[in-house]
Amino acid sequence: MDITSDNINEIKERAIKLWEYCGLNSEDYDTEDYVNEGEDTINFSFPGDEDCVQITVDDLINITSKLDTYEECGESTVRCANLSQTVIDIEYNWYNDGEILNEIYETDCFIASIIEEPILIGIRNLRHDCYNYDFWSPCRVFHAIEFRYKEGVKKLPYEQELEEIYRFLFTLNVKNNYLIRIAELPEVETGESMDDIEETDLENYDFTKETEKIVHHSSDLPNGSPMLKMYLDALSISDRGLRFLLFYKIIEYISPIIANSILYKRLEARLNIGVFSKKGESFYNSIVDLVHRYNRSISDAELASTVLTECCDIELTRPYIPDSIWKLMLRDSGVAANRKIEDLTNDDIAKLNISLGKILYATRNSIVHAKSNYTVTGKECPTKDIGTLNEFMKILSYAIIMHNNNLE
Rounded to 5 degrees, what angle do the CA atoms 226, 231, 233 make? Predict the structure, then answer.
């Protein structure tokens, strides 16, 4: 909607209403300077902003008409009217790769996208005095993932919306190969100087460049799962040991699911063939034996090997396995060191997966029990190689998440 002579007074009143809702003095906002005919946006010069924050007339009307729906959810999200904005961190040079602003996730219910200057986040920070009049903006320095719900559609419950956010952020992380994560809203006015905030390089950015929207649909994204948050949390942690443990939690999460799937397939095959067999002691013992194998496969010592057998491609992931680990795998599995990886038999690969599973389990224990009386087994990843091993764990975790899609 454009500002016209017919609606300009109403727009000014709404602008002042929003300004006051933020806890600011309306006398400090001169609508004559910021609300102009012929425009479809208005400007707010919020305290701490070096420049004005824009909001569309449509959003201004929408928000000010439904301020009673304003709510703050969790530690990261603000929702009002048909909008929901969750503050995020993006670890890369913004203007050298601004195409992420063109990535959207669309369903019948909403359109999600990455936005700059999220107005709801700004409103929240102003209401809580989380800004600095001289240095620190309540709005302009933030990015958010915005859910814009379609007309006539009720907003998803917050927890369900959060699950959709993780699906989208996981996809963007994998596709763009840099970290995009949910952040926390500031709690108090920090006094942080704008000079302390990482500046973006504008020299190489083409502001005239037009790019097409990249639309993701629900079927393009991984299924909702706690593993998506585990994956993003792991990428967010700089400590190599803690990152490994979070990746390992993905193995722990998926192992019973994979073991169940294997058991069901084997039981189904056994029962199908059993139609032609006499149901004697031997047949029933074979069923019991399958269950015993299942119990072993989900034991702490075996679960990593179970997951690797189903989800890991040794040939493709070999470049990400530290050499020290690969040599240990070859020695423990009895596979000759001079064998080319493409010449490995299925039996060789099975043995290597078992060996690698034991190494991952031992490494996990060495980190968890580092400050206790832990006894070294000789299968732990050397401390100097944990960072390299985490690259393998990152790829394995992605493969596990994709494998989980096929199970559901």
Answer: 95
Please name every residue paired with 272 in a beta bridge, in sequence order, or none if there are none.
none
Mutual angle of helices 240-274 and 346-368, in 10-degree steps: 140
3-state secondary structure of 110: strand
Q: What is the dihedral of CA 255, 169, 122, 13, to 10 degrees?
A: -120
What confidence tens digit (pLDDT) does each residue in 265-310 have?
A: 767 666 666 656 666 666 667 666 766 666 665 666 688 888 998 8
Q: How far apart are CA 146 and CA 155, in angstroms?
A: 12
Per-residue H/E/C for 337-379 = CCCCHHHCCHHHHHHHHHHHHHHHHHHHHHHHCCCCCCCCCCC
The DSSP code for 52 is P
- Hey, is 70 helix, strand or coil? coil
Within 10 angstroms of residue 281's Cβ, the number of other Cβ atoms is: 7
Provide the b/e sequence for 248-280 (b: ≥16 CB within 10 Å): bbbbbbbbebbbeebbeeeeeeeeeeeeeeeee
**Cα 369 from Cα 107, distance rounded (Å):** 45
**Exposed, middle or buried by CB within 10 Å (0-12, 13-18, 19+), for 21?**
middle
For tokens 């496969």, name the residue.
Answer: 297
